Amino acid sequence: RSSYSCRYFVLPCCFFDFHGKYSRRQSKKTQYREYLDFVAQVGFVCGFHVEEDCLRIPSTKRVSLIGKNRTYPATDSALVDKQITQFINNRQTCAVVTCDRKVGFNHKGHCDGVCEETGSELPEDGTTWMPGFQPREKVQQIRNCASLPREFVDDVVLNVANLLLNATPQKSCSDMQSENTNTWNQGESLSLKEVAEHLNKETLKRLKSEYGGLQTLLKNNHQVFEVLNGRVHIRDWRKEKPSSKTKPEAKRRLSAEAFKTRLCWFFIHHPDGCSLPSESCPYAHGTEELR
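The structure corresponding to this sequence follows.
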């Protein structure tokens, strides 16, 4: 809409319409395919020959849409612009101002150019393409558990680790004899649901406000936990594969520089200490080893 000479490339990812989240209308298609068709429809309405291409990128959302050529001559730009305006207004949802002055959205359906709340027609002047549109905040809140207080994270990690260690089933005498050479307690594995059931409500409430919640926090603490197929395990560093000798020199140097820059959680908190000797553990066994 910026100019007749405009060309575009778009890689659809999140399912959004002009005014909010995209509402599905065809259950026979996958959500992704339906959304791609919608984005292509926008291109057609804007007067483009829309082409589709699949990018060679490591992502499940890799279908791109390209608009290079117009379907109408430049002399028809004013007429097409009116069609675009009508198309946008037909997809417009009603903006409802809540009592706290924040704008919410009513997703009951299309307004077809008329607001259900006021009965007035939506403005169609050239300066306001999308009345009521609210862009996202300039400063995005970090919600991947990285901004949680260190004390809170440490407390959850310790609680979950103790839960796994204390959940170890009682072993028979034969089991004890066969494990004489392996006395380090790795604890039991529990599902994320079972772990969550043992955490207090205040902790869970705080984690629910983060993307991924408990699972993200545990995965962030890679040193202590391993989360596989929805189950939480205490990581046994003896089973970790040694780093490949074919790593590029730059990566080997970075790995060496990161060696023993943090304290070993197991050395401090695990009842059996660390499963690795000090010279093999990538983490410091005491402050005197910190680099």
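The CA atoms of residues 113 and 119 lie 10 Å apart.
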